[in-house]
Write a structure and sequence with these properties.
By secondary structure, the chain is mostly helical. It contains three helices and two strands; from the N terminus they run ααββα. The chain is 61% helix and 5% strand.
Length: 85
């Protein structure tokens, strides 16, 4: 049972990836074509991308956070939670 579920998930991800590649490629062709898979994978679930490649900020398909920005978000969230207690 688990094997068929895992296969379903893998096939679903491959389908999503295949559908999003043209959109990501059109945006990334002038920035860095080798990085096309990264925005393509996060386009469908609309989740942010974590990358320290500064050129990823030039694309407008998905929000991209650097490690420093993620640390800042975590720190702000921790401070906010401390204030609420």
């Amino acid at each position: 049972m688990m094997t068929s579920y895992v296969l379903f998930l893998v096939l679903n991800l491959l389908w999503i990836y295949t559908v999003q590649i043209p959109t990501a490629c059109a945006q990334m062709v002038e920035i860095d074509p080798e990085d096309t898979p990264f925005p393509a994978l996060v386009l469908h679930p609309e989740c942010p991308l974590w990358s320290n490649d500064t050129h990823m900020k030039r694309q407008s398909l998905v929000t991209c956070y650097s490690a420093g920005e993620i640390a800042d978000l975590k720190e702000n969230n921790d401070r906010h939670n401390d204030v609420r207690r």
